[in-house]
Design goal:
The protein has one domain: 3-Layer(aba) Sandwich (UDP-N-acetylmuramoyl-L-alanine:D-glutamate ligase). The chain is 37% helix and 27% strand. It contains ten helices and 13 strands. Helix 6 crosses helix 7 and helix 9 packs across helix 10. The longest helix is centred in the middle third of the chain and has 17 residues.
Length: 334
C-alpha cells in the first residue's frame, strides 16, 4: 500500500456510477422562539446549501480522489432536476448518463437545522420502479457508454428509489463480466438478492442480518464471518464487505476463503450521512488497483470514518485520507 502511488493510480480510473441520485438540501438558521400557532420552534433561515447526494455523492467522492466518474441515473424533468444538473456541472461532473423523465420527480431531502442541531428532515421523492420505456432507454444509454468508453469499474449505488432493478442490474453485470470490468455495489433491501456475480458487495450489518434472518443484537464477529461467507457463496460474490458502524468493518474473500476484521478508529462523530458513499467509492478504487482484501477494508474504513467528522454529506478529502493512512499504517505505506 504505497500511498503516493496509490493516489496517483486513482487519477487514471474511469468509473461508471449507476443508481439513485438526489439533492441533499440544508436549511440552516436560528431558533429563538416558539410559534404562537402550534407548540413548534420557529426557524429563522440564514442560509441554504444544496449538495449532491446518493450515487451523485459517490461520484463526488471519486472526483475528489482524482478519478473520472461517469454518473448514470434518471431524474425528473423539473426545477429540482435543473438544480441537480447545475450542481453536477459546477463540480465538473459529466451529464452524459443522466436521463430526464416527465413521470418522475427529482429526489430532494431537506434537513432543517436550527442552532446547529437537525430538527427535521423533509423528503420529496418517487420510489416506484422505472417504466419499461425508461428502463429500456436507461440500459441503452449505459450500453452506449460501455461500448465507447474504457471503463475500469462499475458501482451500483442503490437507495431503493426505483432506478435499479433486477433486469438492468443483471444485464449490466453480465456485460461487465464479458469485458472483465469489476463491479461493486452498495445494496438496499429491494434488490438485495439480485447482485449475483458482482466483485464486491457492501451491505451494512443490519441489511445482511435481515437478508439471512439473523438477530443483529446477538451477532459476533465470528458470526459475521459465517454470514458473509454464506451470502458470498450463495450469490457468487468475490468480496463481501460488511460495515459495522462503531465496530469497524469486516471483509470476506471468497476466492481465498479468508476473513479480515478492522476495528473502527476512535474519533468524534458529527454526522454519518454519506459515509457509505465514501466507503464504496474508496473500496472500488482499491479493487481497481488489485489491493488485497484486508487493505481494501482498512482504507475504506478509514475514509468512511473521516467523513463522519463533518456535518452533512461531504466527499472525502484526499489529503486528510493520505495523512491518516501514513499515520495509522506506517509499516505498510512506505
Amino acid at each position: 500500500m504505497m500511498v503516493n502511488s496509490l493516489f496517483e493510480s486513482f487519477k487514471h480510473a474511469n468509473i461508471l456510477v449507476i443508481g439513485d441520485v438526489m439533492i441533499d438540501a440544508y436549511l440552516n438558521g436560528k431558533v429563538s422562539r416558539i410559534s404562537p400557532e402550534a407548540p413548534v420552534p420557529i426557524l429563522n433561515v440564514k442560509d441554504r446549501d444544496y449538495r449532491l447526494g446518493g450515487a451523485a455523492n459517490v461520484a463526488g467522492n471519486l472526483k475528489k480522489l482524482g478519478a473520472n466518474p461517469i454518473l448514470c441515473s434518471v431524474i425528473g424533468h423539473d426545477d429540482k432536476g435543473k438544480l441537480f444538473i447545475e450542481n453536477l456541472l459546477s463540480q465538473q461532473l459529466e451529464t452524459v448518463g443522466i436521463l430526464k423523465s416527465e413521470e418522475r420527480k427529482t429526489t430532494i431531502k431537506y434537513r432543517i437545522i436550527g442552532n446547529r442541531m437537525q430538527m427535521l428532515r423533509i423528503d420529496e421523492e418517487d420510489e416506484f420502479p422505472l417504466t419499461k420505456n425508461e428502463n429500456d432507454l436507461f440500459i441503452a444509454q449505459i450500453k452506449k457508454i460501455l461500448a465507447t468508453t474504457k471503463i475500469d469499474a462499475i458501482i451500483f449505488q442503490d437507495y431503493d428509489k426505483g432506478v435499479l432493478n433486477k433486469e438492468n442490474i443483471q444485464q449490466i453485470v453480465e456485460i461487465a463480466g464479458s469485458k472483465g470490468i469489476p463491479t461493486t455495489t452498495d445494496p438496499k433491501r429491494r434488490n438485495f438478492h439480485f447482485y449475483d456475480g458482482v466483485t464486491l458487495f457492501k451491505p451494512n450489518l443490519k441489511e445482511l442480518c435481515d437478508a439471512l434472518h439473523l438477530n443483529q443484537d446477538e451477532i459476533t464477529i465470528p458470526d459475521v464471518h459465517l454470514a458473509a461467507k454464506k451470502f458470498a457463496e450463495m450469490h457468487h460474490i468475490d468480496l463481501l464487505m460488511v460495515t459495522l458502524s462503531e465496530k469497524g468493518i469486516s471483509i470476506y474473500d471468497r476466492l481465498t476463503d479468508q476473513f479480515f476484521h478492522q476495528n473502527a478508529f476512535i474519533r468524534e462523530v458529527s454526522d454519518v450521512s454519506g459515509a457509505g458513499d465514501t466507503v464504496i467509492a474508496v473500496a472500488t478504487l482499491c479493487v481497481c488497483n488489485g489491493l488485497p482484501a484486508h487493505e481494501v477494508a482498512q482504507i475504506a474504513n478509514l475514509a468512511g470514518g473521516i467523513v463522519c467528522q463533518f456535518v452533512g454529506v461531504v466527499p472525502i478529502d484526499p489529503e486528510i485520507l493520505s495523512k491518516e493512512l501514513e499515520s495509522q499504517f506506517p509499516n505498510h505505506t512506505k
